[in-house]
Design a protein that fits this description.
single chain; alpha/beta; 3 domains; 7-stranded parallel sheet; 15 helices
Length: 438
């Protein structure tokens, strides 16, 4: 069996969504001829933790946890308190330490706040390779600083194929790229180009993201990029398949709530309530996740009785909330390169067999919803279309008909094990290519 090192910041018991793809690789790669070793951090900073996720890890998978210098944690200690929202800066006007904190987020945490793991991750990866001898290395982001570990490792061992997995794009990311700081962006783009040039293979999670990456690749390197979308976990879908809405007409958004995504939904809810007043007795709008959109705290008074905001807990609670909903809402932030964004939650939603409302501009996520047969798509500025999707779901709810049937071929294709099968084939290809004489 060939050996692969998977370098990831997010991994169980870290319960963030970023841990799911690395966990899937660790669990299923052995079924396709690859023995994984996972390198992750010992004490990740400011992440949700759920020990139950460790129970999902396949017995026998080697997990190595190394020290990480968590710079934001040190900064909070300097400020003499626990965290404010990351990157909050000096909006509360408390002085020098806030200005220093903003400077750190802008110019020290580069490419991101996990940069303190890089030297320790490199040392751990080199030690593991000396002991085990890997046939391939995978670095998976975000955070994109993990690719600097791969870059350094590749400098020491260029003969070991290095696969760079972008769960989200780096400088072409709709939500997180720092376009407000051109000089910082120039530094990140330089780092990104080095990673793209040195990697044996690059992986994105959609065909549109692959197309968005091609213009920044070295000439003739298009063949290096493959698209392997995320997959859903059939066992989790099965665990909640018998749950139903619990007496409420619930619209749910689970996962991170990005800036600019709340208003389009609430405008649609407002119009739907005016068109169908009977909804008022049953309606509940649930936001469960990291609330990064300030609009969620500035609700119109007339909508406040219908909205419930809960922090992210874990994927098990999220799955339960999804199954107990009558409409699952998936908003995609507007911006450059958003056409390639297929949110992980969208894949989950489809597997829950509930109506889905995608609020998005044109993009690959619309194709996914269309192909699945479980929902509709509306543009963020099309209030009438959002309201009509809500009303259609309400009519189904009143009939007791909340189940929808996704395309079975698509469900099989989007299972997490099938996605790992694709990843294993890619690893096979790069190791075969590396062994061929030039």
């Amino acid at each position: 069996m060939k050996r692969v090192l998977i370098v990831t910041y997010h991994f169980p018991p870290n319960a963030e969504v970023g841990s799911r793809r690395p966990l899937a690789l660790a669990n299923y790669l052995p079924d396709f001829g690859w023995e994984p070793t996972v390198l992750t951090v010992r004490k990740p900073d400011q992440v949700a933790v759920d020990p139950r996720t460790l129970e999902e890890l396949r017995p026998g998978v080697r997990v190595v946890r190394s020290f990480s210098l968590e710079l934001p944690r040190l900064a909070r200690r300097l400020k003499g308190g626990k965290s404010k929202h990351e990157g909050e800066g000096e909006k509360d006007g408390i002085g020098f330490l806030n200005r220093l904190n903003r400077f750190a987020y802008d110019w020290i945490y580069l490419p991101d706040k996990r940069i303190g793991w890089v030297p320790f991750g490199v040392a751990a990866a080199l030690r593991l390779h000396s002991a085990l001898g890997f046939d391939a290395v995978v670095t998976t982001s975000p955070p994109h600083s993990v690719h600097l570990i791969g870059l350094a490792f590749n400098g020491f061992h260029p003969a070991v194929p290095w696969v760079v997995d972008f769960r989200d794009l780096w400088t072409r990311n709709t939500a997180t790229a720092r376009r407000d700081l051109p000089r910082r962006m120039a530094v990140e783009q330089k780092l990104e180009r080095r990673v793209l040039r040195r990697a044996a293979k690059l992986v994105t999670t959609s065909n549109a993201s692959r197309a968005n990456m091609i213009p920044i690749l070295p000439d003739g390197a298009e063949a290096k990029v493959a698209a392997i979308p995320n997959g859903y976990e059939p066992w989790l879908a099965k665990a909640v398949q018998n749950l139903r809405p619990n007496g409420r007409f619930r619209l749910s958004i689970t996962g991170r709530i990005y800036p600019g995504t709340v208003r389009p939904l609430l405008r649609g809810v407002d119009l739907a309530l005016r068109l169908e007043p009977r909804m008022q007795k049953k309606l509940e709008v649930l936001f469960m996740g990291h609330a990064d959109d300030p609009e969620i705290w500035r609700l119109p008074q007339r909508l406040q009785p219908f909205v419930r905001v809960e922090p992210f807990k874990n994927k098990y609670e999220a799955a339960r909330a999804q199954a107990e909903s009558a409409l699952l809402v998936c908003p995609v932030p507007k911006g450059p390169f958003a056409d390639g964004w297929i949110p992980y939650r969208l894949v989950e939603y489809i597997s829950r067999k509930r109506p889905v409302l995608l609020i998005s501009e044109d993009g690959e996520a619309r194709d996914v919803v269309r192909r699945s047969g479980v929902g509709s798509a509306a543009r963020p500025d099309d209030v009438e279309a959002v309201a009509e999707s809500i009303l259609a779901a309400f009519r189904r709810y009143e009939r007791g008909d909340v189940d929808v049937t996704p395309d079975p071929v698509m469900l099989k294709e989007w299972s997490v094990k099938n996605r790992v099968r694709q990843f294993a084939r890619l690893l096979d290809e790069v190791t075969e290519q590396q062994g061929r004489p030039s």
